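Known limitations

C-alpha cells in this collection are predictions and should be treated as such. Users comparing against experimental data should check residue numbering before alignment. To illustrate the layout, the record for ABC transporter ATP-binding protein is reproduced below. The input appears on top and the generated C-alpha cells appear beneath it.
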Amino acid sequence: MSGNDIVIAAEGLRKVFKRGRGEHVAVEGATFRMTRGRNLGIVGESGSGKSTLARMVMGLERPSAGTVMVCGEDMTVRAVSRSARKRRAKLTQMVYQDPFGSLDPRQTVESALREVLAIHGTGDRRDRELRIAELCDLVGLTQQQRERNPKDLSGGQRQRVAIARALAVEPRMILLDEAVAALDISIQAQILNLLLDVQEATGTDYVLISHDLAVVGHLTDDVIVMREGRIVEQGRTADVLERPTEAYTRVLRDSVPSFEWREEGVLEGIARRVVPPGSAR
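Generated C-alpha cells:
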C-alpha cells in the first residue's frame, strides 16, 4: 500500500475536556487507518466519543495526545492562514445531521454555492455558473429548487444542498455526521443512493458517523465501534456486523430495528442500491 492510498492515519488519539475541577476523557488511545476507496463508519451510542473523534480528524478539535494525518497533512496543527484553510477545505468537508442549521437562511441554493466557488477562486463568473448547474444536477436539485431559500425546501432537499456545497471544492473526503438520521426512512434511502451515485461520479470517499448500524452496513466498507471513548472493535463492516467479537457490538447491533425493516421490504422499489451487510456494493 502506497502513502497515496492512506486517507486517514490516526495514532493514539486522546482528547480530555476540563469540567470544573475535574476532567472528562472523551477519546482514549484511538488508532486506525482509512484507505482510498473504502468508506469508513464510526459507530457507537450517544457519548461514546465518535463525534469528538471525527472533529479531531477534521482538525476542528486539537487532540490532547496522539496524531492524525489526512491525505498526508497533520491535522493537529492549526490552519491559521487563509491559504492553509483553503487547502484543508479541499481535503475534507462535513455534512451535518441538521443541514438547516448549517445553511444561511437568507441565501438561495445558487447563492450559497456561488459564494463557496468564489471564495475558492473557481474560474470566472461563467465557469462558476456552469459549476453550480453541474453540482445541482449531480445531487438532483431542480431549477426551481435552486432559486429557493432553505426554509422553502424539505429536509431531504436541504441535505442535497449540503452535499452539493461540500462537493463544490472537490474534497478528497466528506465526513457525514448522522447525515440521514433526521430523515424519514424512504428519504434516507434516497440520500444513501445519492451518496453512492456521487461517489461513483467523483471518487470522493466518505466517513460516516452514525448510531444506525443498518445505515453503516449499507454505505461503508470498514467500521470502528466506540464505547466510552475507546475503540472496542474494528474491521470490515460485513465481518463486524455479521460476526461481532465484542458483546457491546452485538448489543448495539441487536438494538437497531432498521435491519428488520429493510429485510421486510419496506424500502423495496426505493433503495435500488442499498444492500444488506455482506453483499457486494
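For this record: Confidence is low (pLDDT under 50) at residues 258-281. The two ends are 22 Å apart (CA to CA). Please report discrepancies through the issue tracker.
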